[in-house]
Amino acid sequence: MSLLPSIKEPTPANARKAGTEETPLALRVEGLTKRFAGVTANDGVDFELEVGEIHCLFGENGAGKSTLSACIFGFCTPDAGQIVVRGQPVEMHSPRDAIKLGIGMVHQHFVLVPEFTVLENIIVGTQKSGWRLDDRAARQKLKSLCDAYGIEIDLDAYVWELAVGRQQWVEILKALYLDVQILILDEPTAVLTPDESARLFAIMRKMCANGMSIILITHKVAEVMQSNRVTVLRKGKAVATVQTKDTSPEELARLMVGREVSFSVNKSTVAPGDTVLEVSGLGARGYWNEAVLNQVSLSIARHEILGIAGVAGNGQKELFEVLSGVRWSREGTIRLNGEDVSRLTPRAMMDRGVGHIPDDRFREGLVGPFSIAENLILGWQRNAKYRSGLFLDRGKIAALSKTMMARYQIAARDDEVPVENLSGGNAQKVILAREFLHSSGLLLANQPTRGLDIGVIEYVYAQLLQKREEGFAILLASEELSDLFNLADRIAVMFKGEIVGVVDPKTATVEEVGMLMAGRRMEAGR
Amino acid sequence: MSGLFQEAILISIFAATLRTMTPLLFSAMGELVTQRAGIWNMGVEGTMLMGSFIAYFVATSTGSLWLAVLAAILAGAVMGLIIAFMTATMRVDHFVTGLGLNLFAGGITLYWFQSYVRGGPQPSFAGFEDVPLPFLSDIPFIGPVLFSQRLLTYAALFIVPAIWFLLYRTRYGLELRCLGENPKALDVKGLSVPVRQYGAVMFGSAMTGLGGGFLMLAFSDRFIADFSAGRGWIVVVALIAGNWKPKGVLMAVVAFALLEAIATHAQVVGVGVPRQLLLALPYLASIILLMGVRFRTGQPAMLGFPYSRE
């Protein structure tokens, strides 16, 4: 194909193409085992990657996807088993070895320097320039890479200036610049709009057409279905490798969890009641005095879930902070059951029955070294229920935590376990237990399912729907559109601190929401 | 006061400013490199004190001032090696490491000093003299201020553009700044984070050792306990006040040196302010300055965080 002429010359891939008959596999992993402090993260994993394929690694959190990719990228050394790259058994001790072998990785959490320009981020550490920085060759090469893959980016922009979605292109360019043959992408679409995801997949297919091979780590079934093959990991073992065209989302989910999973949600049809929360013209500013919220107006009634869609960093966090009293607004009013609560402290909001599930559960929702029992009363320690005189009433707290751990199925030895030792799912259940117990009327849930396994997500869904049934008004933000389409009665889409549209999940499509997430406003009259 | 006398005082103040800022500048530029590499070195004071003592010891026992300078640099580098081992290899908290090292340096220099003197008369040496540059030093006003200084002061003025060039125009500088902002970005390219941090800390501490050596060899003829007298802390403040940029740090150092020069001259001229208060001026200024510096935009994002892969 003459589509990518500028790529073909500099990459050593084509030179190796002559040898593809003898070494049809880009990468083979045989019986890889890796243990961390007694936990077996990978247990005899076999994995094959053909040249030019997109091969998905699919599994729940803790199934061993990250460990396997870390071993392939030289970040950790396997305890047993071997890695064979293009027919040659290799031993990798650091990413340097992996890069030499043409293996690259795009990490789930971007490894970028915000204070550097795009170009500096790409060339730093590659040692391709002389001792004096000389970026002319790099500029030229990057320009041809951008042209070939249809990536539009200003090489001299600072990374902090770029929207999160665009930062993904920088990561991709970093890998391409190093001439990688095998690219590992770890949850690459977590911060992308549906439109950007589609573009990423188009780029990935171009890479494959050009002789590269891609390992795609994901837990989104829709993305798995766009790959060539899937290897499903469960509890550190590779349980199956299947051709994508021969499988179905249902089968993959069953393989991943090890039991049947129901995606359907039983949502009752309760009519919304009185308005609980009424927000009008809300505006707030950030650290640099930039507008983070602008003219946000919304209202939620009893028995109603209002969904907030949007790519991370478009003001969702700030909205939740303002509504829970953590951050003050500059403009606008917040009314809770008719009362103006715009200037109330978090504690006053809690006293009025507002529950808050923050998006970063370990940083904002919990105190890691504190026990489960302590975290269950966090913020309510002054309440007479948990005190006897000046002191905490250990007996009452213990009784409470016993009940809560049973009711919310928190798996831990006892209530003395520090929450930092809990899995993400169990930690989230501690927050749910605390907020559900102490709130009445309004629940603010920001990303309550982030990073959770399907089993726990089912549980969170059920809990939220039960609260809706009980008459709570719920504000639910999620980056997973499936959450919103399953649970919400209305979906408001946020972009750059504004609500750019409100849709009905019963009639709207994912594409429509995706367009709004990318900042395209709804046409007037729709 | 006559105009001539005023001019003489001004010349003397400015000349003293340059002399005073020399040790601070060496140290501040070295620590700038260290901190841009992500190591929040709190052991500057101890490292400087160590440089001063070693310079004193070598100068009095060998009689060679340049050997003393070399020894001070080496002593600094050794202190840097300890700091790098603690922070980059053992991943000990950077503050604890630095504070511990300061206590160590304060104790050990005093112990060495007393074993060296053994109650006898304290050995002294003749320090560095001014080296007026031919012709240039004859220029009125500017000559005596700028071109009638110690050799190392001239060198210190060159160090600022040199460090700027290192940080912003070389490949090594880019990697160095990357260490402070996001060390993982280097790690994923297969470069060793600790190796580079060792280099940066040892370089920075060697410069601080040099500063301590100059302090001894140009300002005094003998060692006393706690000789560096908080100048290492002034350097730490200068980095924050200078927003971790070469020019800003230079300006902060100049401000401190000017205050100190004014303070010492005010004593001579006889201003009706207690001596102790005058001498405290730079330290008071540093506190006031830090209260004013609220935006630390230039602070390396990962400054002071020990790096580990997960």
Automatic annotation (TrEMBL), chain A:
Stretches the record annotates as Disordered: 1-21
Protein name (database record): Simple sugar transport system ATP-binding protein
Similarity-based family: Belongs to the ABC transporter superfamily.
PROSITE patterns linked to this entry: ABC_TRANSPORTER_1, ABC_TRANSPORTER_2
Gene3D superfamilies registered for this protein in UniProt: P-loop containing nucleotide triphosphate hydrolases
UniProt organism field: Aminobacter niigataensis
MF annotations from Gene Ontology: ATP binding
Annotated InterPro entries: AAA+_ATPase (IPR003593), ABC_carbohydrate_import_ATPase (IPR050107), ABC_transporter-like_ATP-bd (IPR003439), ABC_transporter-like_CS (IPR017871), P-loop_NTPase (IPR027417)
Keyword ATP-binding: yes
Record keywords: ATP-binding, Nucleotide-binding, Sugar transport, Transport
Chain ranges of the ABC transporter domain: 27-260, 277-521
From TrEMBL, chain B:
Domain of life: Bacteria
Stored CDD domains: TM_PBP1_transp_TpRbsC_like
Keyword hit for Transport: yes
Keywords: Cell membrane, Membrane, Sugar transport, Transmembrane, Transmembrane helix, Transport
Lineage summary: Bacteria, Pseudomonadati, Pseudomonadota, Alphaproteobacteria, Hyphomicrobiales
Protein name: Simple sugar transport system permease protein
Membrane-topology annotation of the record: Multi-pass membrane protein
Annotated signal sequence range: none
Stretches that traverse the bilayer: 6-26, 38-59, 65-88, 95-113, 151-168, 198-217, 249-270, 276-293
Main localization category: membrane
Intracellular or extracellular location(s): Cell membrane
